[in-house]
Write a structure and sequence with these properties.
Layout (H helix, E strand, L loop, with lengths): L1 H28 L24 H16 L5 H24 L8 H21 L7 E2 L7 E2 L5 H19 L5 H20 L4 H18 L8 H18 L6 H4 L1 H19 L11 H7 L4 H22 L1
Antiparallel strand pairs: 1-2
Helix pairs in contact: 1-2, 1-7, 2-3, 2-7, 2-8, 3-4, 3-8, 4-5, 5-8, 5-10, 6-7, 6-8, 6-12
Length: 317
């Protein structure tokens, strides 16, 4: 069992390492690049860096999941959510970068698609995987909480909130990759401890992110785009629900939560005060960046915070 789990990580890493150079060359050749915010001085030099590198993450995780899916069928719902949100991100990136539509998918279109993907996941997990929607309570020694019919709306809120929080976290070289790598390793360990049967896809995601970081750490040679960031959010939410651990997202995924809350607070306060701001810039990683922190410092600290949160979540388990 342990050998299979480790093999999943190495297979995914190998696929990512092989695919990424070809993908980066293709994206450069086709000028699939990203335009950065001009009002962050240090980001101007990022203009022209290829995006949509999340395709490589999806390829690595999907191929590895197919290899291990026969032995671990419970990974299928996680893959559905990962690919579903990855496809939404791909459409958004395609419209923005290829067709040069500045806004990509309209807000209502993106939300509608996210609701549809979450609904497919909800049907699959309840009707075919037969996973209970009881919620595992942190710090209770494994006690479960039955919230009845309210579990379905909570699922939609948790999944879509996690996905968008992960999307907001993708703003600096290696940030979303580093944070989600720690989260993936935590869920792999949790799945092994709980005999959840989804550890191969967690390790596959860890391997894919390790490969991606080889090209995405500062200075990045490629960005994941919404193709990658939305897929990562789908993965995190899918793992949490297959292990009956959505409440643990509040611990292990606190960085995602802080990122999305910083945007909501900034926008709300800006409208209420007619132009005043709480942060220098949102999401909050840009606040620290404009305060003098380097990208590598922000990524390192956010990664270490997530590592500490992983230990807390493990104790809570």
């Amino acid at each position: 069992m342990t050998l299979q789990v480790i093999s999943a990580m190495f297979l995914s890493f190998a696929i990512g390492i092989v695919v990424l150079p070809f993908l980066i060359n293709f994206l450069n050749r086709e000028k699939v690049d990203q335009t950065e915010r001009e009002y962050i001085e240090s980001h101007k030099k990022k203009n022209g860096t290829p995006t949509m590198g999340g395709i490589a993450i999806l390829v690595a995780v999907t191929v590895t999941s197919i290899v291990f899916g026969f032995s671990f069928p419970r990974i299928i719902p996680v893959l559905i959510l990962t690919l579903g949100f990855g496809l939404i991100g791909f459409l958004d990136d395609f419209l923005k970068v290829i067709l040069k539509r500045a806004d990509g998918l309209l807000a209502w279109q993106k939300m509608l698609l996210q609701i549809v993907v979450t609904a497919v996941f909800a049907v699959y997990i309840t009707q075919y995987s037969h996973v209970s929607l009881l919620l595992r309570l942190p710090f209770t020694g494994g006690k479960m909480w039955d919230i009845g019919w309210f579990a379905i709306p909570v699922m939609f809120f948790a999944v879509i909130g996690t996905v968008n929080g992960t999307n907001f976290t993708d703003g600096l070289d290696g940030l979303a990759s580093t944070v989600t790598l720690v989260v993936a390793l935590f869920f792999a360990a949790a799945s092994i401890a709980l005999k959840g049967g989804v550890e191969p896809i967690a390790m596959a995601m860890a391997g894919a992110l390790m490969a991606f970081l080889c090209f995405n750490c500062h200075p990045a040679k490629v960005f994941m785009g919404d193709t990658g960031s939305l897929a990562l959010g789908g993965f995190v939410a899918g793992m949490a629900y297959m292990l009956q651990m959505p409440l643990f997202i509040l611990i292990i995924g606190m960085i995602y939560l802080i990122e999305v809350l910083s945007v909501m607070l900034q926008v709300g306060y800006f409208k209420l005060t007619h132009g005043k701001r709480i942060f220098r810039m949102a999401p909050i990683h840009h606040h620290f960046e404009l305060g003098g922190w380097s990208e590598t410092k922000v990524v390192t600290i956010f990664g270490l915070v997530t590592l500490i949160l992983a230990f807390i979540a493990w104790i809570a388990l």
